[in-house]
Amino acid sequence: xxxxxxxxxxxxxxxxxxxxxxxxxxxxxxxxxxxxxxxxxxxxxxxxxxxxxxxxxxxxxxxxxxxxxxxxxxxxxxxxxxxxxxxxxxxxxxxxxxxxxxxxxxxxxxxxxxxxxxxxxxxxxxxxxxxxxxxxxxxxxxxxxxxxxxxxxxxxxxxxxxxxxxxxxxxxxxxxxxxxxxxxxxxxxxxxxxxxxxxxxxxxxxxxxxxxxxxxxxxxxxxxxxxxxxxxxxxxxxxxxxxxxxxxxxxxxxxxxxxxxxxxxxxxxxxxxxxxxxxxxxxxxxxxxxxxxxxxxxxxxxxxxxxxxxxxxxxxxxxxxxxxxxxxxxxxxxxxxxxxxxxxxxx
Length: 347
Hints:
2 domains, eight-stranded mixed beta sheet, 17 strands, YIM1/Zinc_Alcohol_DH_Fams, NADP-dependent oxidoreductase, NAD(P)-bd_dom_sf
């Protein structure tokens, strides 16, 4: 099969297109023929070597975390899916590799594709959808009537999280550029802050939840918009001791995480705010809950561009540029020749 391989770590190092054997299937996995793969910033961060400590992959390997496709084979302990099922998933850590024609997926991480989505639309959902779900529903325990501040509202996670929070009955504030204000308002944002001309610290007050996806400076400033007892959840770090314990990392690595997060945890405690780090995980059951919302029309995908499989490196570069509105997707099966990517207005 064809795959795009990371041969060794390096900043902006191109992935190599190669012919590789079909992946070996474990007993609790199904083999999925990849029709489309979502592209996420974590793919470029892994390529650059930023996650070597917490995700020590063996190279060479294919990158890619999001998949939509068709089941072509099932392991002996896989009972939930059959050959021919249209499915989607965020594949598990250490089994990534959706920038390829086939990928094995743990049955517990898989869900049937929403009936009302194309393969490309479905591939845009799993990682950002599960991130938003685990942050807002699981960690924040978001409730109707609460106020939530979602940073970078026009990005992949932001476009999904705004819709999820609004469906949950929360009042939503977000940051974006003036050019994307109409997009995030259409998704449900109540308060839109132009980050180029406004400071969110001056505009927001007494929020129950902040979903941080930006740098450490923005993370620290986010404390000021939370009420006492509020929750600051970061998907961009720093990792906290609870994360290290959950992953059973070595004592030295847990100590490093404790030191890296000491400042923000101390500041949060002084304001009676709870800080937590989220590194999302694959979860088929949660994805099925997301499917229900999509099929009800409560959440819709937002895709900026669909790139052909041959342009996988260009798709990664576009995600890194920070210009994407919503998600970037690679069309693997039936991919057309590259035209630099096409826009898909689904907002």
